[in-house]
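Data availability (excerpt). The following record was deposited with the supplementary files.
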Amino acid sequence: MTFSQTLACAPARPDLSAPPIGTLSPPVPHAALAEVLRRYRVGRLLTAEPVAEGLLNRGYRVTTEAGTYFLKCYVDAATAGREAVTGHHRAMAALAALGLPVMPPLALAERACTVAAFGGRLFALFPWVDGRHRHGTELSVPQCDDLGTLLGRLHGALDDVCAPTEQPLGYRSADPLDSSTLARELRSHAGDHRPYDELDALVVRRLTERLELLAEHAHRRPAPRTAPPTGWTHGDFHGLNLLHDGDRISAVLDWDKLGPQPRAEEAVRAATLVFNDRATGVLDLVRVRHYSQSYRATGAATAEHLAAAVHRVWWERLNDFWMLQWRYQRGDHRADPLYPASAGQLAWWCQEYEQVLDAFAN
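Predicted structure:
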């Protein structure tokens, strides 16, 4: 079974750990949820409770006469489209068939399709999976090993279930001159923001620091051909998309961003999101090292690939402002709580670059 998707050569790549700028669609009325569920063999809707985690998609824990399920509303369906969502579902089913902790959606009652359309939105119904989200600093060393092994196994399995990918000519990295211009604009917005609060003051200080870092490191911009090999990836691998049941990972969730990218970069991004101190952003490099060594042991990447990925993701973060663009350009404050740790991690990473590189690549 294969799932194909076109990859353009030499694209300008956004940070795939960050959601696209946008606004969340309104909640789905109870009557609409009931109508969607009538298309499945799960009986009558009894209760529906919104699932709070996540920045974009809407999800509901629904109880029906047949049991408990997760009903997902694809907020970005207008962009992704039914064909892309269906393709993601096929890939999930194929991964589950290989014994990986992936839970594919249920088919509709009338036909084998897994996507229900109603009121201009797309929906999918998944079995409810017990488990909880755990931050990486809560994981034992063996569990860090298991996480790296799991990501490596997923990357390898995606080669088997997805269409072959062509290696692109390269990937353009962000221009530090453009980034400096944006940083100045955002700093001005922060200074003028009313009411001016502690976060605005922090933003002004961090953006002043960022401008200095961009000037200091401008000569380190990655060349297009320095990216590690491209392959199929989950696209959004982090703690909120992992469910733990005791010592094991019971499910890898949210495959909406399944697609090709430099594979080792997903491993690096995931570690920066999973193994960070949630207040300061500082990485637990002992856990990172165990995770990275186990990932490499699966054959998904070499030490050289991880080293290239570390440099490219570091540069990506140095030039990335999506949280502040949400706040100041769109008036969307959902990402505000993430900013202090994110900015702190970048400043720390610039100071401890060699230690971070060593943890991933040795």
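Summary of structural features: The mean pLDDT is 91.
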